[in-house]
Design brief:
4 helices, five-stranded mixed beta sheet, 5 strands, elongated, alpha+beta
Length: 139
């Protein structure tokens, strides 16, 4: 059995708590696949402020404490396809936010703030943070 988490943030708790919960639903020798991001620079340099990113070293400490083995690491740095995909989705998000702002003018600031946060997160992925996929094996 494999559990896949895709950029879930703190929905299940902090990263250590999340990993502990995921381990409970995976059998011994099973896998957890985490799609996340880690901090390359300093937290103060991150524009997207809705999440506190960990460094790669902090993540690896969490993996060790949780008793899981890091099998591989796949990052997408300087990945043109990812940039194109992010640009496309940001255009679609902006377009939908404009449509919703026409229907719900009183909510315009909320829609604009959401668009801004998504664009800032994508900007961060081009330097301050790195997107990563980690397959982890339960020991």
């Amino acid at each position: 059995m494999t559990v896949v988490t895709g950029a879930v943030g703190d929905v299940l708790g902090n990263p250590a708590e999340t990993l502990g919960k995921l381990k409970k639903v995976v059998q011994t020798n099973g896998y957890i696949l985490i799609d996340e991001a880690f901090l390359e620079g300093e937290q103060k340099d991150v524009r997207y402020q809705n999440y506190e990113y960990l460094t790669k070293a902090q993540w690896k400490d969490i993996f060790q404490e949780a008793g899981v083995e890091l099998v591989a690491e796949l990052t997408c740095q300087d990945c043109a396809e990812a940039d194109e995909t992010n640009d496309y989705y940001n255009r679609m998000i902006r377009r939908r936010a404009e449509e919703l702002s026409v229907l719900y003018p009183d909510k315009r600031p909320m829609f604009e703030e959401y668009v801004k946060s998504q664009e800032e997160e994508c900007d961060d992925l081009n330097g301050v943070i790195s997107g990563v996929t980690w397959p982890l094996k339960l020991l």
